[in-house]
């Protein structure tokens, strides 16, 4: 095959108590790439649609091409590729936009090369793209975008990525308020030391969340969806943060928090109706503050990125 | 029934990465209590066997009687009880000795009262005994001793105790070196603040451990049995700590660490032979340092405390 179209979904990193170790994939929206084998041996970005001209065409800077180049370098399977990128995710929103492009690109280049690598083996190449996009080769967006479902990044040295085999249908609401929060600012505001007691609370909640997901105990999932480390500081970027969490719970959501480094907020719900009501309620909240917002409701995607043709 | 005999097992709190939130129960050894209904309305300790005269007979200070009194106060089911305590666990060793007496006592008094409460509901009364014994009403020994298996203490306010429904046969080696380490010293040595990155590592490991237990992924359990918070400081109390962990792994154990606040060390293994070899190897290590040690090997007990007659 000389042309591959691949899709990779938006993702929610952190998931409250899973700060820096947990992420999950949405069903939609997501980015698409079309990779075409070319006669020369270069990797280049031929076109980007939907980014408003903001993303670089430079193959050393675009996350899709960086991921493709990392794949080729590691496998030695070098051949010319043109990349056409269809951006459906808003940039810098905290829903894994750069990760989705990279995830789609590595899944596509692997398919174009005859699928020599497993999904897990593709993760490090997409992480290289994250390093270029935001300065840190983190995996909590790219891994769930590639693998689907809930993904644990247990460790980075060496990389230990575990897809949680969970059989639980959950729905996610994303509320993207049109506020500008730079990932680097959102990172800088975190304190390098924390109270031991907060670390214990966070551990208890992440253990509770994972137990609740495995045992389908939605009440336990709900009780565990709390972040005592990043959110108390990052929430200053989001007007009415505590009210937002409360509103989501009043709508019946299991929990809510900041998606990645924000400003997008996520809420998890047991069914689509609650997820939609939650979205409408939060959009109303932002409207009342004269902040425009977009609402996205989707099932948790259990399969991750897919080759579409 | 006017006489109840109950047994409650030794427990391992912390379990490396589960500092202050996780514990599990051994099959043996354990403490036994015999409760007898009396004609007056007092709770008193009639005899203690096996403690070398070290434990208090004063009912306001003995963990068994404190737990019984807490039960009676909360339920209003007041009647006279004499308590005979058979101590099989060494005191101050880090294997939940005070907790086992309290756990056996609450299970016995509940049976004597006609079982009005569930196992989960008994946990707070045994925690009161821990408050008397060591100044803090912690649950990570009493909860697994009462409930069995692996138990998560997700939170204390309000108390949220979850028995993990895990179907995995594991064996534990306890090595009790005859060193004196006071729980209060072991607690005091911990720093009240820690690095954010260590907190993230700990969260990743506890998430990995719980996932590994649910999915029966022994390699993941093994990779996750690390503690970057308490052990780096507490290990100063145990001569050759790093070598001990390494020796346990060389014997085939999944992991090893400090049991509770020590000085007992524990190792987890997938079968009894490895657990026994690990015990022999670690006893040899302590012998070479002229430190006498006791070795205890047992299956993880899935049921916890039991009424024996």
Any overview of this molecule?
The structure is a homodimer of 309-residue chains. Chain A has helices at residues 63-75, 97-112, 119-134, 142-147, 183-188, 196-215, 218-224, 231-234, 241-250, 272-288, and strands at 3-13, 22-38, 43-49, 80-86, 150-156, 159-163, 171-177, 193-195, 255-258, 265-269, 293-299, 306-307. Chain A has 10 helices and 12 strands. In chain A, a hairpin with a 2-residue loop joins strand 5 (150-156) and strand 6 (159-163). Chain A has 309 residues and is an alpha+beta fold. The longest helix of chain A has 20 residues, at 196-215. Chain A folds into 2 domains: 3-165, Ribosomal Protein S5, domain 2, CATH 3.30.230.10; 171-299, Alpha-Beta Plaits. Chain A is globular and about 60 Å long. Chains A and B meet through strand 5, strand 8, helix 6 and helix 7 of A and strand 5, strand 8, helix 6 and helix 7 of B.
Which short descriptors sum up this protein?
homodimer; 309 residues; alpha+beta; Ribosomal Protein S5, domain 2; Alpha-Beta Plaits; 2 domains; four-stranded antiparallel β-sheet; 10 helices; 37% helix
Give the helix level of chain A as a range of percent. 25-40%
Cα distance spanning the termini of chain A: 10 Å
Beta percentage of chain A is 25-35%
Greatest interface by residues involved: A-B, 41 and 41 residues
Largest β sheet strand count, sense and barrel closure of chain A: 7 strands, mixed
**Radius of gyration of CA atoms of chain A, rounded to a whole number:** 19 Å
Which runs of chain A of at least 5 residues are low in confidence (pLDDT < 50)? Answer: none
Q: Please, how many domains of chain A?
A: 2
Indicate the mean pLDDT of chain A.
96
Shape field of chain A: globular
Give the SSE string of chain A: EEEHEHHHEEEHEHHHHEEHEE
CATH architecture of the largest domain in chain A: 2-Layer Sandwich
Number of helices of chain A: 10
Tell me the CATH topology of the largest domain in chain A: Ribosomal Protein S5, domain 2
């Amino acid at each position: 095959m000389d042309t591959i179209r691949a899709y990779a979904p938006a993702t929610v990193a952190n998931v409250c108590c899973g700060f820096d170790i947990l992420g999950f994939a949405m069903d939609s929206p997501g980015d698409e790439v079309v990779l075409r084998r070319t006669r020369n041996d270069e990797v280049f970005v031929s076109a980007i649609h939907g980014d408003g001209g903001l993303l670089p065409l430079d193959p050393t800077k675009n996350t899709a091409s960086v991921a493709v180049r990392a794949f080729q370098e590691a496998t030695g399977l070098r051949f010319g590729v043109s990349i056409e990128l269809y951006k459906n995710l808003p940039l810098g929103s905290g829903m894994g936009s750069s990760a989705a492009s990279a995830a789609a690109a590595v899944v596509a280049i692997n398919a174009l090369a005859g699928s020599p690598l497993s999904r897990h083996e593709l993760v490090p190449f997409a992480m290289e793209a994250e390093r270029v996009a935001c300065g840190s080769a983190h995996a909590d967006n790219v891994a769930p975008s590639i693998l689907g479902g809930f993904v644990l990044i247990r460790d980075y040295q060496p990389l230990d990525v575990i897809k949680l085999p969970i059989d639980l249908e959950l729905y996610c609401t994303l509320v993207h308020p049109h506020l500008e929060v730079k990932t680097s600012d959102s990172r800088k505001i975190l304190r390098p030391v924390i109270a031991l007691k907060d670390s214990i609370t966070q551990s208890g909640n992440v253990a509770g969340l994972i137990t609740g997901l495995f045992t389908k105990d939605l009440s336990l999932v709900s009780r565990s969806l709390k972040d005592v480390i990043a959110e108390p500081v990052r929430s200053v970027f989001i007007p009415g943060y505590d009210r937002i969490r409360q509103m989501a719970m009043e709508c019946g959501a299991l929990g809510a928090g900041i998606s990645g480094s924000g400003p997008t907020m996520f809420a998890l719900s047991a069914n689509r109706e609650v997820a939609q009501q939650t979205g409408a309620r939060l959009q109303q909240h932002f409207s009342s503050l004269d902040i425009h917002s977009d609402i996205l409701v989707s099932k948790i995607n259990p399969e991750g990125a897919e080759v579409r043709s």
